[in-house]
Each structure stands twice: as structure tokens, then as C-alpha cells.
Amino acid sequence: MPSTTYSLEEMTQILDHAIEDRAEWFWRLYTAFKEVNPEKAREACEKVILEFGQRKGRKMNLPADANAQQFIEGVANGPAFYSFDMVYDKLSPDDSGLKFYACPFLEVFEKLGLSKDEQWELCQIANCGDFGMASLFPHLQMEFPEYLSRGDSCCHMRVTAKK
Which residues contact 149 (CB under 8 A, 6 or more apart)? Predict the structure, then answer.
């Protein structure tokens, strides 16, 4: 297989398109599940996306006692940093954060014409992946004081050491 080199901009575009496809798949599957069983659809999606987040968290190869800074740096590692236009908010062992100024998922939901309530619902379900990653580190606490889907200027992931 021939080797190809991509610029950061090209790689970000490739990832953006892959995320866009995944966002539409997610919306279509969730919508179909809701038609079959409205009471169980959200519960089932949250469960499998949490499990996905846990698998993704294990791939970060962090020590079991990773601190907040190590966790945030693990999340920000890779090309998704650029697709989600991430910026470090704070970096310290006990309190670290990332701000996401773009969301390819939300961009797709808007293109599909979903209402703000539908976008918020899907965002909360997709967010289970983030909480799945954090669940591997019971000594850390994750919160999102801001969400793009709620009209905030960014999604703000904050991770702190539990007291």
C-alpha cells in the first residue's frame, strides 16, 4: 500500500467528515430506537455510549491514579483536538479543563434541521462517552459547566480531583 502524507488541515477535514457521518448515524439510530421503544431508547443509547467512552478511556493508556491534568491531556491528544477546536482552559494536577469551540456533531444536527431541544437531547446522550472515560478514574470528577448545544460559547470540560 502506498504511503500518503496529509497536512494537518487535510487530516482535520478527513476527521470532520468521519465525525459528521457518525453524527448522522447516531441521530438516525436513536430516532429509529425511539420509534420502536421510546422509554428504552435513551437508556440503551446512554449505556452503549458510556461503554464506548470506557473503551476509549482505556486506549489513553493512563495510569490508574492519573491526575486531572493527565486526563485532560489524554483527551486532547490526537487530531480531534483540531476538529473540536479545543483550547486548554487550565492545566494543573487537581483542576484542569478543555474548552471545545466547535462541534461537528452539532453542525450536523443543525444541518438536519433538528430543534434545539433535540440537539440538546442528543448532546446529553453523546456526552455519556466523556463521562465513560472519566468513570475509569473514580478519584476524578468531571463536569460540563457550558455546552454549545445550550447556546453557550463553548463546551467546557472540567476535571477536578475529588476531595
Answer: 103, 106, 109, 116, 119, 120, 122, 123, 155
Query: How many C-beta neighbours within 10 Å does residue 46 have?
Result: 18
CB neighbour list of residue 155: distance below 8 Å, 6 or more residues apart: 84, 99, 100, 103, 144, 146, 147, 148, 149
Which CA distances in Å does 49 have to 14, 113, 116, 125?
23, 23, 21, 7
Is there a contact between 70 and 62 (Cβ–Cβ < 8 Å)? yes
**Closest to 126 measured CA to CA, from 72, 59, 66, 46:** 46
Q: What is the pLDDT of residues 70-117, one digit of tens each?
A: 999 999 988 889 999 999 999 999 999 999 999 999 999 999 999 999
Residue with cell 463553548: 154
The pTM for the full model equals 0.91
Q: Considering only CA atoms, give the Rg of the chain.
A: 16
Helix axes 128-135, 38-59, angle to 10 degrees: 50
